[in-house]
Design goal:
Length: 91
Amino acid sequence: MTDRPLLTPSKTALRQLAPLATLGVELAVTALAGGGLGWLLDNATEMRPLWTIVGFVFGVIAAIVQFVRTIARLDRQRSAERKSDQSPAKH
C-alpha cells in the first residue's frame, strides 16, 4: 500500500466530462422515445408494428444526429481552449 493521497478530479475536468457522461443516456432515451411514439400511433391506428418500427428508426437517426452534434460542439470548444492556451500572453 502507498501513502499517497487519493487524487480527486478538478471542477474543470468534471465540467468537461459531464456532456460525455450523458451521451449514452441521450442515445437510449431518444431511440426509445421514437419507438414509444410509434407504439402509441400503432395503438391508435391498429397498424402494428409499422409505426413502432418507423418511430424507432427515426429515434435512432435523431439520436445519431444529436450524438454527432454534441461531439462536434465539444471538439470546437476543446480547439478554442487549446488556441487560447497556446496564444502568447498579452501584457
